[in-house]
Structures are given as structure tokens and as C-alpha cells.
Amino acid sequence: MRLIPIYTWTKGLHTMKLSRKNFMNQPWAGGVTLLLCVIVAMLLANLPATAHLYHEFLETNLTMHIQSPDGSIDWVFPKEMNVEKFINDILMVIFFFTVGLEIKREVICGELSSVKKALLPVIAAAGGMAAPALIYFAFNMGTSTVGGWGIPTATDIAFAVGIMSILGNRVPVSLKIFLTALAIADDLGAILVVALFYGGSINFPLLLIALVLIIILVIMNQLGEKRMMYYLIPAIVVWFLFYYSGIHATMSGVVMAFLIPMEPRYNQAYLNRSNQKYLRRLGECGQMEEFAEETFPNGPQRHCLRRMATVADNSIGMSYRLEHALNPWVNFLIMPIFALANAGVVIPDVSFFNIFQALPGLEGVGFVGMGVFFGLLLGKPIGITIASFIAIKAKVGEMPAGASWKMLFAVACLGGIGFTMSIFVDTLSFGELDAHTMETLRASGKIAVLMGSLCAGILGSILISFFHKLEASKA
């Protein structure tokens, strides 16, 4: 009688082990990790025992100050750098670099690779950015907070794809592809918004130097240069130039991503010849008398294996290799760190969650919370649906196969999940106001992003489940 429960328990442990091992490969894993980091950040920022340490750590100065005894040299690098800016201006460059690689791949050979494939999600993404911006503008027109219109315009692909994967076959595959492509196009739109509207004053000489370096890299790319160091070392220089030129430094990651070659260094014929040559040498080296007592692989064989590995590695395009290598680090380290640093909103009292009222003690500001909340919850699905309707009726786009308008609207609600990019834009907003007002408005914007994203995710999930049952009952 005990064999069954023991077997079941053992099987359960084995399943748990497999689940832990494969956790990072699950489409919902990134979203779950981000959600946990948001909760931890909120606790760290508001618990009496940790709040002071949390904020003190984020404000820790990381600049190097080099000064000569006579004062002739006085150099600070990087300027105004603390832990929070290190995360937002350096670590997030890697995030934007990876996003840029993904966008480039989709444009060249993925869901955005042809006019027919790209038009509907691109037009839908444009509508899904315009409508939230207009709703935010309506709540903040004529006030000092109107500049935060970019906050509710972005879709977080990690959370949206995570929820769709949890919903399983209730979402048609065509609509999963549609929302993924839309989120990628949305990322590109958000990048342009940051670059054009949320930078500082421009230092044109430094920007010109960066442009010259970028042109040199373009020429190198066209000439067929495919060695990684010739791109990654200039990428650091381009970041430095962007950081000091006034354009947000994270944009350097996107620019460099589009310059990374996708074509492999070695073609298939070279790979085959190389493998045959080194496989033959492996056998020959194993028969050499001076290495007869050594176990496999001996010294010469290790050289052959390393060379085979190098050729095999370079037979995959640099862009694919970097995207594959960076994705786990971005999803499970950089984005969680970003969430820990930026989602820790100080909540003075419960009334701070009431985003439907004007912020107390601040004069001349609009309704940031309501603009962001309704921009995400209502603006995103309405904008995506209306833009899709116009594109399909104008015959410049095609309805996703097997999808209905009801289900498309339900999936569009998931587009209102705007966590990562929305919070990033929030951290760049209201910089022209005094420090106290700016911090209060940014905190209100972050709370509205979290609440709007949560409600959008819940609404989208409920509607998808409801419409799926409705369609199944009619079948």
C-alpha cells in the first residue's frame, strides 16, 4: 500500500527538479521573475528596517574623481554616476542592445520581414501608442506634467507573452504571433520616443564624432568584417560619446545592435572542409607515440577540438550568437535588477494609491496617475483595435488566421501591460521640475504603471477566457 505514495512523491520530486532546470526556458519565467522583483522592491522601499538602506544604496556615488596636486587635472568619470544611474544608463544599454538585435532579426527574417507580415502589427502598434498618449494628454493638457505622455505608450513583451503562454490554447496561435510582433514594433517606437523626446541638451561635436565612428562601422560591415572585437570595442566608445552628448546613453545599444552582422563568418562549405580536416587530425594525433599514454584528448587533439569549436561558433552569425548569449542575462539579471531599482516606490500612506485624485501639495500639475492608468488600460486596446480595423478594412493588413474581432480586442488588452519601458520612460520624465515635485510625480507614475498593467493583464485574461468559452460553445 505504501509503494504508490512513495512512487508518487518520488515522481513529484523528479518533476520539480525538471521544472527548476527548465524554468529559464519557460515563456512565462521572465514575467514571474519581474513580478517577484517588483514585490521585493516595494517591500524594501517601504519597510522601516530596509527603506533607508535601500535608498542609500541606490544613491551610492560611483564616480571616479582624479585630481592632480596642482589642480591642473580635475577629471570626474562618469559624470553624476550612482548605483541607480549605473543600472539605468549602463546595464539597460545591454537590454536595449538585445532588443535591437531582436528587432533586427524580426525585420530581416522574422514576423516583420515582409510588408504583408509587418503592416498589421506595425500599424496596430502605432495606434496602440497614439491612443494612450492622447488619453494622457487629455488628463494633463495645459499643465507642467504634459511631458509624461510617453509613459503609457509601451507594451512589456515579457509579461504579455508570459500571460499568453499561461492561457495556452485559449489564444489562437496567429494572435500570439500578432501580439509578439506588435510588442517588437512597439519597442522600436518606444526607443524612438526616448531618443527624440527624453534626451538632454545636445553636444553636437561629440554627437558628430559618434556619427563618424558609426559610419566607419557601417563601412566595415559592408566590407564583410565579422570579428566581434571590431564591433564591441567601438560600442563602448559610442556609449561614452552618447552619454556625454546628451542623447540617452541606452540608445547607443540600439544603434550598435543594428550594426552587428547577421551573416556568419564561415559558410557551410568551409565548415564541412574544416571538420573533415580536424577529424582526420584527431585520429592521427591519437596514434602518435609520444602521446600514446595520454587519455583522450591529448594536447594536439585539444587544439583540434578548440579549432573545430571556433569554426562552428563562427558559422553562426554574430547577431544570433549575441542574442542567444545575452537573453538569459537580460531576462533573469538585468531586467530584475532594473525592477528592484525602479519599482521601489515610497508609499507615505494608503491614499497614495488613489491615482484618481490630484496629488496633494502640488500646484499646477495634472492627473499623472489617471493619464497613465487609463492610457494603459483603455488607450492600448482601443488604439490597437481601431488601428487594426482601419488597416484590415483598407486592405493593407490581414486579419490573423482563425481570429475574431472579439478575441483580437481581448488580446489587445494585454498590450496594456507596460511595465519595463513605461517605468523606464517614467524615470526620464518631469526632469524640468524641482526635485521634490519630480520624485513625487515619478512615484505616482510608477504606481499607475503597476496598477494599470495589473488591471490590463487581468482584464485581458478574463476576456480571452470568456470569448474562448463563448466560441467553443458555438462550435
Radius of gyration: 26 Å
Strand content: under 5%
Shape descriptor: globular
Report the strand count: 2
> How confident overall, as mean pLDDT?
84
Distance between the termini: 45 Å
Order of helices and strands: HHHEEHHHHHHHHHHHHHH
Our count of helices gives: 17
Record the strand order, biggest sheet: 1-2
Based on secondary structure, the structural category is mainly alpha
The main β sheet shows up as: 2 strands, antiparallel
Helix content: 55-70%
Stretches where pLDDT falls below 50 for ≥5 residues?
A: 1-18
Structural account:
This protein has 475 residues and is an all-alpha fold. Helices cover 69% and strands 2% of the residues. It has 17 helices and 2 strands. It has helices at residues 3-22, 29-46, 51-58, 83-109, 115-140, 157-167, 173-197, 204-222, 229-245, 251-259, 268-286, 299-314, 318-342, 368-393, 405-414, 419-428, 435-474, and strands at 64-67, 74-77. The two termini are 45 Å apart. The relative contact order is 0.15. Residues 1-18 have low confidence and may be disordered.
